[in-house]
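Lab notebook, bench 4. Continuing the backlog of folding jobs that were queued last week. Each job is logged with the same field layout so the records can be merged later without manual cleanup. Today's entry covers Large ribosomal subunit protein bL12 C-terminal domain-containing protein, a 78-residue chain. Filled in by technician R.K.

JOB TYPE: sequence-to-structure
TARGET: Large ribosomal subunit protein bL12 C-terminal domain-containing protein
LENGTH: 78
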Amino acid sequence: MRYDPTAEALARIERKLDLVMQHLGLHDYAPPAPDPLTEVRALIGQGKKIQAIKVYRELTGVGLKEAKDAVEMLETRR
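JOB STATUS: finished
OUTPUT FIELD FOLLOWS
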């Protein structure tokens, strides 16, 4: 196994950063994934159900019936 000074330096920096974050009470969380249905929900909120169904179909690739059912389910959860 070869000695890699860059990898060793990076490991030291990561250890130090972990200690600093621990001391400050910070956690290394990944940012939440964006909601792919944000636009669909906004259209539902604006009363644009047909447009919401179209966008849902574009995003998911499902048929008209499935998209309509899904949008109606989202509509009831508002």
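OBSERVATION: The helical segments are 5-24, 38-45, 49-60, 64-76.
SIGNED: R.K.
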